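Request: Could I get any protein with tokenized structure?
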Amino acid sequence: MLKTISATLAALTLIVYPVHAQVAAGAVASKPTVAGPVDWTPMFKSWERGCEITSELSALIKGMYERRVVLPLAYQAAASKISRRKDQGYDFIRLPIKGTYYGLAVAAFEFYSMPETDDSGFSLILSASKQDVKKVLMRVKYNKTTNDVGDEKQAMVSLDGQYPSVECY
């Protein structure tokens, strides 16, 4: 029975909660939305404070792990189907998104983890040119923080690979 439930949950790729469930979970945007491209900058603004994970990002990450999209209403229409893959022991869970981050086109939000360890991280994958990313994001101050046990956290702009990204790990 548990396998059947797990298989059913795995088959679900997109669930959008009704408004009342999001209000109860505190996941509804406090500002009304305006037609046009979705600006993801407010959602990821906390990364400028040492990769801080807000309650909205936490709900999104947890939902992605369960193959559910849990987003404030302002972002729901800009999200697509979650995909999952394994590579060298890591689980990669990706949510394609549309819109902008500091005016740069975004492609996806990705969460990765290695189940046997505490190794995990997040990437906001951009679909803008590396030159534009460098020009725009060099003005953003990504602060470093240190937790109680001395671990440092800081978001970093990566121009490596096929697509530029902002990463927290």
Notes: Residues 1-34 have pLDDT under 50 and may be disordered.
